[in-house]
Specification:
It contains 16 helices and no strands. The protein has 3 domains: 9-189, Growth Hormone, Chain: A; 202-253; 261-481, Growth Hormone, Chain: A. The two termini are 20 Å apart. It has 489 residues and is an all-alpha fold. The chain is 75% helix and 0% strand. Helix 1 (9-43) packs antiparallel against helix 2 (47-75).
Length: 489
Amino acid sequence: MPDVRTASPQGRWILFTTVLGSSMALLDSTVVNVALPRIGADLDADLADLQWTVNAYMVTLAGLILLGGSLGDRYGRRKVFVVGVVWFAVASLLCGLAPNAAVLVAARALQGVGGALLTPGSLALIQASFHPDDRGRAVGLWSGFGGIGAAVGPFVGGWLVDGPGWRWVFLLNVPLALVCVPVALRHVPESRDSRAHGRFDVLGAVLGAAALALVTYALIEADEFSPAVVVAAVGGVAAGVAFVVVERRRADPMMPPDIFASRQFTAVNLVTLCVYAAFGGFFFLAVVQLQVVSGWSALAAGTALLPATLLMLLLSARSGQLGERIGPRIPLTVGPLLCAAGMLLMLRVGPDASYAADVLPAVLVLGLGMVTLVAPLTATVLASVDVSRAGLASGINNAAARAAGLVAVAALPVLTGMGPEAYRSPDAFDTAFRQAMGWCAGVLVLGSFLAFATVRRPAPDCTRPECRTHGSVMAPPLEGRPVGKRIGG
């Protein structure tokens, strides 16, 4: 039985290194958006290059995150976590030194692989290391400090872009890794899951990532409608079908199809797709709108959306408690509607926008909507499956959210007629941004309708989330595999 206590020096070192490692991946999933206009100008990149700068990372992260968790269970959680941190740092160095957009995109894809190794491993190390009496507090500290990192990230990213330059958004990860790795090797105990068995579903992971990559390529390049786009679209669909077939036939699939036999689990994941597609599109475009159209600095644009994250940090635990009392149906119905209203309020943001009058009201309404829905969404996902599958269910839900976000980033420019040079033209980008907010709001309303029609109150003895505090805006919190049979709160 793990026996580390949170008050011990070793416990503090474990929390330090896991928070530091997971924050690296968490920050890069949001901070890079702030740097996009400067990256485009410096590397002479068009809009498609900027889309790939975001999506190359998301493709490999979403496609491999389930496999990353399984590797840690089998070969050692500390070992895989350290490999992920080193991998992420090396890929970050390549991003920071990239001489052109093609190298940057390739390095971002490698970053996603590192993120898929370290992201699930950080929470798994917490759960496997601490004494059962301290585990809840340790997870709370881990998620709370990680949320603070998510809040600080856009501020730091904007400061770096305006100061030393966008390359330091990536290069900063190298010294962080140089601190994280020695501490992990010295102070974090190794752990494995003795129940892990069978072969790894590498084929399933490759097919899943390939389907995402090909569909993303087809959407990003759809305005040209070339033979390559058609081939990519057909190949993406074929890879997706092959993924389903492989998962049905394998003895140990990465994503067991029978988990979707739970109608509630399937329904909540459909709501997740709608909600996080809208979030992905919004956070990709909003910081660019503030810089290109409103003329704000990268620092001002990065910090403009900070209140949404702060609201989640302050109120997510209370939102989870409310969801437990009244059930998830109302929060999952009302939350997306509030988010949709926040995005429609962003239609007021144009040239010479005022933060207090135009941006802040929209961000506050959006943040309240996110607070309302994220914690109940995670709780409902866990409540929809057997306790032994809680970690798997959370991983699938997290991967679905990331996949929805990358598809939105790929599709919105096509849907709004945003040309390759749109981000260089304030008028063109402003027009497309307004259409995009309408699309995002519409998808959120669809998610609200799905929640109202399909979500029901879970059983009273279901699994409860351990991550009560949450600050990420790009994906719901990951929950680890239960240690023993943990029921209830």
